[in-house]
Amino acid sequence: MQQDRYRLSTIDGWALRILKTFPARSGIAPAHLDLEDARRDYPVIKTAIAHFLSGRHIDEVLSASYSRVIVDEYQDCDPDQHSVVCHLATILPTVILGDPMQEIFNWRGHHPNWDADVLGTFPLVAELTRPWRWENAGAHELGTWLLEARRTLKAGDRIDLLTAPDDVDWVHLDGTNDQEKQRLACLTRSPQAGGEVLIMTGGTQKGLQRRLAKQTPGAVTVEAVDLTDVTDFASEIDLVAPGNLEAALDFAFAVMTGIDRQSIALRATTIAADRNRTPPEAHELAAIKYREVGDAESLIALFDALEATQGTRTFRPEILRTCIKALRSSGPDVGFLDAAKRIREQQRILGRLLPKKAVGSPLLLKGLEGDVAVILDASDFDRNALKNRKNLYVAMTRGSRKLVVCSSTHLLG
């Protein structure tokens, strides 16, 4: 389909655009449309768009603007989003796509009941029963086994890794050197040259994910779309002299390996005072200049110099690249924080590129497809048994050629 024949957006992104077009009629407080605090503003936006549409103020505008609606990943819709789509379905032909076994975005509240609310409004017309992705990858047995695993988990039963095909490896966590076993699992390579490996832990284990990315050669983290680390840093930096070197080094430490914050700050002070006995290195000179100047250009130069330092590797590149992009976009008319927020909203729509070796949670990696999926603890995604089964299923289906599962038992679910 030609790109000018469709509009691709998230439901929330579309809602924001509609509310900005009709701010007075929608009745939403203008401050929420600026997304100063995304976690606070988006719930208000979702409630406002559902209420606004229910008044049928723009039904004719919508029917004149679109010919149909297609909503993917419908199992992740919350009640307000479901209300929006249901309303659109009264105006336009509407098709929804989804899988209730992949419903893992419901930690903030209950979602519409799939059988009663969703299928009651959108009757089932087709169901995919052939594992095309695995067949296309030459892993027919793995795809067939995963289909059966889905049926088993959906029924509340347990799957047996001992009956899995050769493309599934079980790493037994028996309490003996479990961390070393998990570390070695992270080193799993794709059967195909250049193939992607996705490594998954529980969603709340951010520290573990970052530690694994630091320790695993070539691994990087996959970040949440709200990019809180970038906006928090941008709110702390004023881009005026003197530069906040301590905050800049803290940020660099959070995204790169090999950053000795205290040593760099101390050397910068010593060199600036002309008391150094050894010649300054490039990153130390960059630190001095940033502290003296404090502008966006000198901060970017500091990050570039730190990245180029021997023994340093960026394991959270999405955070660093977004930060640098925001710094370059900032200026007299657009502050660093505003630039960061604009880029964040753009990336919500554009999506992300898949690195060759990614570390994250099923929530962060959902929708991404690699050659290999590595699960570091199959029982540790969620304390709720049903939610754990759904997270497990999402994690197991991220790899099209190979699956590695670390667990204390061969029976999962």
TrEMBL record:
User: Could you give a single Gene Ontology term from the biological process aspect?
Assistant: recombinational repair
Q: Which GO terms describe its molecular function?
A: 3'-5' DNA helicase activity; ATP binding; DNA binding; hydrolase activity
**Which keywords does this chain's UniProt record carry?**
ATP-binding, Helicase, Hydrolase, Nucleotide-binding
Please state every residue range assigned to the domain named UvrD-like helicase ATP-binding.
50-111
The record's InterPro entries line, in alphabetical order, gives: DNA_helicase_UvrD/REP, P-loop_NTPase, UvrD-like_ATP-bd
Q: 4Fe-4S as a keyword?
A: no
The record's section on Pfam families has: UvrD-helicase (PF00580)
Name of this protein: DNA 3'-5' helicase II
**Where does this protein come from, organism-wise?**
Rhodovulum visakhapatnamense
